[in-house]
Amino acid sequence: MINPVILHHRYIMLVTRTDIDNIKLVNRGKVRDIYEIDERHLLIVATDRISAFDCVLPTPIPRKGEILTAISAFWFRFLEDITAHHLVTDNFDEMPDSVRMHEYLRGRSMIVKRAKVFPVECVVRGYLAGSGWKDYLSTNSVCGHKLPPGLRESEKLSEPIFTPATKSQKGHDENITEEEMAEIVGRNITEKLKSLSLQIYQKASDYALKRGIIIADTKLEFGIDESGQIILVDEVLTPDSSRFWAAKDYKTGISPASFDKQFVRDYLESIGWNKKPPAPELPPKIVQATQKRYLQAYETLTGRKL
After folding, report:
1. Which of 46, 142, 157, 219 lies 20 to 30 Å from 14 when distance is taken between CA atoms?
2. The domain 117-268 belongs to what CATH superfamily?
């Protein structure tokens, strides 16, 4: 049954929430709804919800869930020589009948392997931006990495740095040092996840740059599957989890225009929202411009039309 919160706007289905009667809901995140297929597999559905400053906004972005699913599937396969991953299939026609009976899930769903997810976010920064830039201004370092004085906003670092993060009780991302990460998951796991993250960032950023996009930073998540293997999970190198800049427009000293949800954050900052619920509605021009950026990121990186 299609839930009444699924709307139609300009002939595009907007999926803001899913309720699948015949499959158990495991978790409803800020963007994704996760269901149990069986004891070994989950169904991840990317909705058109968008969040900023840890709040889900009331205005969806058309086709966002499709874009996130397609771009993650592309990167999972692209990175298979570096790491195993949780994706089983994103082909809707290969999914169980219990999923295929809900046609609105097509294009925004993935069947994945279950995994025990590490309680840390593996962030790699190749450029000085966002919270890293703010940390640098106050401490001349980012997550324990001492950086040279005199760097400018958005400046490329001499080499990418691994800057993990964790969640506080309030749900905000909190930057931590590698030593703090090791206290949470152990030294060996920390070193393994750091190595994988840096390899992933290097391969992806080299590829993206050839296609005209700078990946300034990205956030990755890993888990352990039933065989004990470390695998890449959740989403990977999407406009929600990464900072994408147009290489042709890049320069230091400013925050470059991006192909990600930084555009939405910038708008919310500009109207003086206090970053506390309830979040404000996004005007149509911001919605349309955000969708355009997400689509452009996907099409530029993959060379495909959605």
Report:
1. 219
2. ATP-grasp fold, B domain (3.30.470.20)
